[in-house]
Amino acid sequence: MTNANDKLKLLLTDIFMMEEELYLDENGPEQIEGWDSLATVSMAVALQQEFGHHMTIEEVSEIHTIGDIKEYLRSKGVEL
Amino acid sequence: MSKQAPSPFTNHHDAYSMGQEGKEVWLLNGMRQLTEWHRERCMEYDRFLLSSGADNNHIQRLDQLPYLPTSIFKKFDLLSVDPEQHPKLKTVQSSSTSSGVPSRIFQDEATSYRQKKSVQSIFDSFLGTERRPYIIFDAMETARGKNSMSARGAAIMSLMGYASRFYFVMDLCDGQLVLNEERLIEAVEAAKESGDFIAYGFTYILYQAHEMLQRQGHSFEGFGNQTFLIHSGGWKTLQNIAVDKGSFNDAVSSVWNISPEQVIDFYGLVEQTGVIYPDCPYGNKHVPYYADVIIRDPHTLQALPTGEVGLIQLMNLLPLASPNHSVITDDMGKIVGVDDCPCGRKGKAFQFAGRAPKAEVRGCGDVYAEEQGK
């Protein structure tokens, strides 16, 4: 696991208030109790602070799972 | 059954760039299509139109489009999508009104996306596009929600796209909102570092918080002209204690040493989620190109000309999950001009003129105040 992936895992487990074992690419709001609308915004703000990329409305609306978050970061050049 | 709903957006990025004459034919066509879309999918809506004799084929003007009273969304769950095919369907609901029954509007993913685009397009025009620290005069619990959201929560969330960081500076203690001064100071420090910030609170909550800050002698300095304090939710409670818009703006802006014009009131209702009406510096509310406002005589329901006060009918092209695309409210207002506001925004400009005399206390902020026993 890369440093960026460690960082992302720490960030998402904190924001979504989830157990580490839920940090799986296929998991989304249905599996993660704490992933609500406010947590989605918190995630977007935190990604901006941590990785330096503002998410647009279009980009946020395409996030449905942890895998989508990773895919978004990869598309911005972050190595995960 | 029509497969595609009309797109609410053209290639105009600015919500107010289209003049009234230019938009009317396009909007009328879209509104007729959207009426048909809902009619084919929502049996109750179709029955309502049949019983009222509305004939979509003979509509030539926007003021001939059928509309539902907002009160209908308190009595019925009107749905134009199959919940089984839309597992992420959400509800947005108003605070319970004095009748005790909230309005419930449904949102599928496509509607939610359209609403976010719309709000962004409107707020961009008033706030610019820069992200700033966002101070929220409310408790975090208000904005939490997976499948449903209150009007207050929705309003808070609508500004999140402008936040570089956000701070909820109130706590919920025994059902009462209490200012958390430590968090406020933390937020103020972040705002000072940035030079500008945005803040949001329900009108009555924002007033209460600033009245307290003033009483405690707080005065914050060093903020620029891209700082805005935004509020919504209703004026009735404040009017009852003789606080008008001018004194409200003075009270709030003086705490932050900014111009009263940087305090922005916006009008909006759950039944028109996604289209909000902030005041421009000339005190007018502007209608984006994918929406329209008609003022109607409260007795005859005939459309009224510019300058006459009547019931506000609101319509927009956004909603796909509930037939709330054209509603008549029990709010009063008047059109004050078309394409001619000195602020430069095109389309109709209107002003809010209070609640209809027999309407219940309904502004969500007013309901909050009522619940607090004010």
Automatic annotation (TrEMBL), chain A:
InterPro entries: ACP-like_sf, PP-bd_ACP. It comes from Paenibacillus mellifer. It comes from the Bacteria. This is Acyl carrier protein. Coiled coil: none annotated. It holds the Pfam family PP-binding. Residues 1-77 form the Carrier domain.
TrEMBL record, chain B:
GO terms for biological process: bioluminescence. InterPro entries: ANL_N_sf (IPR042099), LuxE (IPR007534). GO terms for molecular function: long-chain fatty acid--protein ligase activity. Residues 37-370 form the Acyl-protein synthetase LuxE domain. It comes from the Bacteria. Signal peptide: none annotated. This is Acyl-protein synthetase LuxE domain-containing protein. It comes from Paenibacillus mellifer.
